[in-house]
Write a structure and sequence with these properties.
Layout: H1 19-24, E1 35-36, E2 39-40, E3 44-49, H2 53-60, H3 66-74, H4 85-95, E4 99-103, H5 113-133, E5 138-142, H6 149-162, E6 167-170, E7 173-174, E8 177-178, H7 185-194, E9 197-200, H8 218-221, H9 223-237, H10 240-243, E10 248-251, H11 258-271, H12 283-286, E11 290-293, H13 299-309, E12 314-315, H14 328-333, H15 340-354
Parallel strand pairs: 3-4, 4-5, 5-6, 6-9, 9-10, 10-11, 11-12
Antiparallel strand pairs: 1-2, 7-8
Helix pairs in contact: 2-5, 6-7
Amino acid sequence: MSGALAGILFGSCGLAGSARGAMQSGRAANRREVMIGGRRAFAVDVHTHVIIPEALEIAKAYTGSQQIRNQLASAVGPNYDVHNADYRLARMDREGIDVQAVSANPWWYWAERSLAREIVQATNEQIAKLCAAHPDRFVGFAAVALQHPDLAAEQLEEAMKNLGLRGCAISGSVNGEELSAPKFHPFWAKAEQLGAFVFIHPQGFREGARRFRGNGNLGNSLGSPMATAVALSHLIQDGTLDRFPELNVCGAHGGGFLPASAGRQDQCQNVFRENCKPLKKKPSEYIRQIYFDTVVFTGEALRHLVATVGAGQVVVGTDYQSEWNRNAVDHILSTPALSDADRRAILGGNAARLLRIGA
């Protein structure tokens, strides 16, 4: 989903069930069982979206601009609604997804501190309630008010320690500021301390809005992966991954253009030394500290991603409820360059480890 208010994401409370329990849960008669090498494979989707009506109502009461209220009013859809689990579960069953990690696109970065606190609290509480109702099918990423970095750190800790969420979802920038800015260091320090999974899902690339006009929905098809690549590149180039080397950061949209451009960034270190501050490693080496979802759309793109970053750094993403990647499981199963071990890791093994599913 793109756009500042593209929707809120489904989240999860603590997983009371295990990976095995998720595969055996209630709707078994209609559930697709994914098989690899004659054995049942476990699939975890880390890129799914949900709407939290309670959070929208809080924001709609805000006495800000009519434009904000109009945008919020349009950020709805019955199949994204946190209270509509049946539709979501039915689609998961058809596609062979055992567990969704659900989260909310951060549309509240404009909110002042007290309002942001209310919006985030409502979002995380509803995500936790959904998970509690289906503990073997959902895990969740918290909402955080990253425009207030100290508050965001508090919210992340509260969500993980008291609501059982497994990390958070954030945008690729905050009101024009890069995630690598020093003001965000307290947030990154807390994320590293907690072992949080930080899912970076940019809300388009607004700086290019004028040139994205016209046919092709370029703001999404080009802008979103571009924004992902820029956000991740700043975390590398500005030293964030050196300062916080144990971070578990995941870039949506297959990391955008970063995996394909990492070699170019390496070469810039050699050719444009006056503009490229030396790093502890080559830029291309840092991408093996980052996780990437499978929202790429050809077997060759997936093969290249895995060859570049390693199968252990790739996790399933469907971009639920959009139609971008409805066949995510088959995409992995049908890519011939992958071994069975690769497929098992990408489908669910990597995410289960990172999100402590079944632990």
